[in-house]
Predict the 3D structure of the following.
Amino acid sequence: MTQETDPKQAAVMPTYGRADIAFVRGKGSWLYTQDDTAYLDCATGIAVNVFGHGDERLLAALHAQADKLWHTSNLYRIGEQEKLAWRLTRHAGLDHAFFCNSGVEANEAAVKMARRFQYRQGFEKRFKIMCAGNAFHGRTLAMLAATDKPLFREGFGPMPEGFVHVPFGNLNHLRDAMDEEVAAIMVEPVQGEGGAIAAPDGYLEGVRKAADDFGALVIADEVQTGMGRTGYLFAYQKAGIQPDIVVLAKGLGGGFPVGSVLARKQIGEAMGPGSHGSTFGGNPLAMAVANAVLDGLEEEGFLADVQRRAAILDEKLAKLAADYPGHILERRGTGFLRGLKLADKVTVGDMTAALRQKQLLVVPAGENVLRLLPPLTITEDEIEQAYHIMDEAFSHLATA
């Protein structure tokens, strides 16, 4: 039954190009349809389900909290929120945490914090946010302005002012564009939606120095890269820099909606009562699950093993690129945020559909890139299965 003939399906606003498939349950790295067909999930809700599906620790935390209390609002103290704020800020080397429900909300809050901090420091003219070309920070009006993609902006009227774009990875262009009006530099350590493009070596260090030289802040957008996705709790840690603000979501709740902004003490103190808020942000259910996610990520050796298994996946992708040079131009990314840039003759939409027909779920990205975002718990055997499915799909193209 198509959307035209199914009134319930037609009632859903058509803002997504949905595949004609519905999943009814999941376990580990696998999703299952009503007829029990199993799909290997290397999409994970777009980098969300860090422990896959049906994780016992997360289920126990959610059920235990659901039996006690769901919502009170931020008019009162929330114990699990204070616990998570303490843990996240200690890991990030920061001081304050704000909680919301999604990545785009967190990015909006981060921009407000940067501008408010500069204002409180006496720099009222510092309002610009320096962003990278090809970045993706969300789909609210302000974050469309931060995201330099004309296609996303079409038909939504004039964009909010104050967002400037420079080429990603180019420090000369960045420094040339800096001036006394820049409040912060907003950067993804790896551009996920933009095509799984990792920051070049030395780039994040250069961003930090440019910000320091010009009196600006650094906002690390870790919505997709944070919470272990790259083999580090936060991707910026590999570069050894210290951002002033860190934005989290997606993997933070392991599938439960939650976002967060972590910030330096002076930045947090600039945000007094009434300066920002969220009705549902930091609610007991989300906080219980996020604390359980962090419990898993903190287990001794877990992130090191993520790096080990991610290296195995990288080897498999390297073999695919070597075996099908006419179809795969480049492999990209890091950790379990990986991408294959496809030749123009192979559209990422068609390849995503072809892999789905073989029961492998992946995610398309910009620049005709096939993106793999498996759960951090994916096994070596499952990596091997994913490789063989992709090999079969590319082999079919090569012989067609």
